[in-house]
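Long-time lurker. I teach an intro course on protein structure, and each term I like to show students one example going from raw sequence to a predicted 3D structure in token notation. This year I'd like something fresh instead of my usual example. Would anyone be willing to generate the tokens for the chain below so I can use it in lecture? Attribution to the forum is fine with me.
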Amino acid sequence: MTTPDPSDPAAPADATEATEATEATEAHYGEPFDGGFALAEHHQSTPDLGAALAVYAELLTLAESLDDSPDVRFLRGHLLSNIASVQLKAADPAAAARALERSLALVRGVADVPMGPRGRQVWLEVLLKTLLAKAELLRRTRSLDEAGSCVDEATALLAEFHDPEGLRAAEVGLTRVLLLIDRSEWGAAEELASALLSPAPTAAPRPDRPPAPSPTAPRLLDCLAVICASTGRFDLADDHLARADDGFRAAGDNGARQGLLAHRAYVVMLRGDLDHAERLYAEASALYEEQGLAADLAVCEQARAFLAEQRGETSVAHDLTASSLARFERLGAALAAADTMLLSAQQAYDRGDIAEMQRLAQTAREVFEEQRVYERCAQVDLLLAMALEDNLNRTDHGALEAQSVAMALGLALPAALALEAARYDFVTAHARSQWLQLADAAMRLAFRLALRRGDQGLLFELVEHRCAGASLALTRTDPPPPPSTPDRRPGLVFPAPAMKTHTPAEGTGSGAGPSSLLGGAAAEAAATAGLRVAPPPRVRMSAESGRFALQEYVQAAEFRYHRRIVSEEEVPFWPPTT
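-- Reply from a regular --
Happy to contribute to a lecture. Here you go:
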């Protein structure tokens, strides 16, 4: 390959030579390509993504008109990789996926072509960037395992890199941090991001020439801000955002600075200043709409729908949710679209539009079933059961009331059991707490329906199931505070996606993996508070029949939601008379 290849491949000895080594990984093709690459990068930093794509498209057309050779194929692959990166920013995942596949085929296709040390470094640079772009595409579509495989492949390339300043390692590390955030592994993400921000010792430090800041540093600070906000450390989040803004400003990256606006709104929203959060999200939405950033705009609209709902502006919330849903569907973000459908279904239920609620909920459930997100399926079934109870309260079902109550119980109780069991799957206490709120609301619904039917046997079994395996607190624990709005419905508790300890395909029996047991201090603290630290055992109701409590509902839950509801342990039922 004719990519620049100096005769001396020795590693540089000082900071100046290290910078020269970094620049040596930049490809040089001659004009008009070098000038075109520089112009497109300028458009990206402005940001003007349409102009950047137009420049790259013109260069690609020119490259495809050249006689075929390994150098020309590599040039085409390089251009396609950059095109895919811009298309990702412009929220065109389908086009980005096509460009990435073509790019990887071209770049990998010249892997065995003889090239000198610098040519090899340039080839590695382009392949690394393309793999990280593919990881980003997969991350956005929630294909996190596949994205992790791309990051692993990129990590393996680092061994061949001459990377004295650690810039490439930082880029790969940043992508891994983003994956950890997507999985809600806050501790691991914060630890890795902090380590990547720590200055690496150099072989020959130069006091008169401090090393240039890493271009990934502002993005790592942005990640730390999200992590701190999500874990309740708002002042530290503000500090990280301010430092990230300074870094992007110094780099002249206005597009990245504008991207911080939504994260500022996120921090303010979690602080509880909903009016200020709405103003920031509205400002970010206008900016993203002007720039054509559909994915960022969809997220902002989803947040603004939640804020409008908190203000009681149901029509505004409905319109924003519908707009966000349409954008997610166009982007191919199936799970994000389904989550938005479920939120919209809850809003329709609050408005009394039961037909629309059922349509949205069933459509969302189909996506959750296909994606094997079974706890969301249970959430949908709970919403449908709530609608049935509401209908029972409003209308006289006459002779059909017993049938309607049985139908509602058939939805509510298996969903309640699944939601209660699902919380043990999640890694973080925050996620477990969110799912516990929803599970408690579901179980209250099941008790109401059992009381409505006057089924004392079912009530006994519900109590036995709830108490089995739970420790008794030595001191009285205060009940949770009531919700801020007295008419807030239980179904409006909406846990965020989070990392699990296992996938539905793992384990044996009913298709669920082993239960995650709290250990050490966490288990002791939970037991002291009277909380169960493992899924409940089976409660054997009769020695003769072998039947256990809620047997029919447990079996229904295991079949519908592909998970184990009770542990393998079995305890006997002790009637009150004994």
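Some talking points for your students: Residues 1-22, 201-205, 471-492, 505-524 have pLDDT under 50 and may be disordered. The chain has 23 helices and two strands.
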